[in-house]
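Branched-chain amino acid ABC transporter permease structure dump, as promised
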Amino acid sequence: MSERLLGRLRGRPARIVLLAVLLCLPPFYLDAFWLRIGLFSMAAAIGAVGLSLLSGTAGQLSLGHAFFLAIGAYGYSCLASDPGPGLPPVLAACCAVLLAGAAGGLFSPVAGRVKGMYLGIATLALVFLGHHVLLTWDSVTGGFNGRSVPPLTLGGFTFAASDPELVVLGVPFGAEERLWYLGLALFAFTWFTAGGLLRGRPGRALAALRDSETAAAVMGVDVARHRSAAFVVSSMYAGLAGVLLALAFRRVVPDYFSLALSIDYLAMIVIGGLGSVAGATAGAVFVTALPLLMTRYADQLPLVTAPGSAEGSVGPTEAARYLYGAAIVLVLLYAPDGLHGLARRARVRLGRHRPPSADRKPAASASATSAASSSSSSSSSSPSQPAAAAARSKEHTP
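structure tokens r here:
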């Protein structure tokens, strides 16, 4: 048992290193379209992990995730712009994330005292309020047309296409190639911090709070404080996702941060599996990549027309929403734990049908040897028992 445990511990870092190497290869082999899908999926995964902590682990319904994404995106764009504070881009990104957390902290008293559908309606007001502010505050947000996003610069390296052109192993690195590795770093940071949070005492407290508030309070969990903290952490993850989205889009507009975006994030965590980091990632990739792929291959898909076609036809975006709406219904009916639960059950079934490993063979042979020795001993003792009985009968015969 100890050898197998050590083998698993040695194998997990190897799998992580192999996965990291594989994720570093796409910029050398894929074109800009697939890299943009990956960037949008990584940004969506960061935001979905934050919402999964709030709704899946803490059991708090939120429809205002798009509001905190907008704070992160517009916060970075305003703070890093020259007609403005003109902060260094890295500092502007950190301040934008903190600004989103501060907005979540201002709303946290409501989140600490309201739950369920009532909290969902309260957060819904944030989306409409934020959208109105983005449209009317022209001097800061740029109004309906939005505003451009300054590129991120780190140590003299710019995450955008710039002169002189960067060439790595014969591959020209433009904005998508450079932002790919930034997105990987931010996603890895999100994955490990959220996983550590779920495995630690805060995660156990939030899970107890989700299952039963009364039982959690009896165990010493401060219900209002943990609810508020979950809302702040979720808002900061959303702000980080907004910063990465702004860098990927290169321009932010108010219409993107609407109620539909909040619904998309709820679909991500439901399809992927509530309370799971891996499930939120899988759901984010599915919901984000599906409309982009359907837009590219619209002329090859039945019942789907290219964008800008005649009225009454189904566009790729609408068709994608229909598909993942149907996916939500199927998940709720047949797999309430989402894609993550399906993958876990598949691993269990594969483990059951796996042939016996090499480390089990010596044990089996040892048990067979012991069984053979016991059977031989019993067979050798069986003739002596009737002989002893016959001798005793002769002694008692007159």
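The two ends are 64 Å apart (CA to CA).
lmk if u need the other ones
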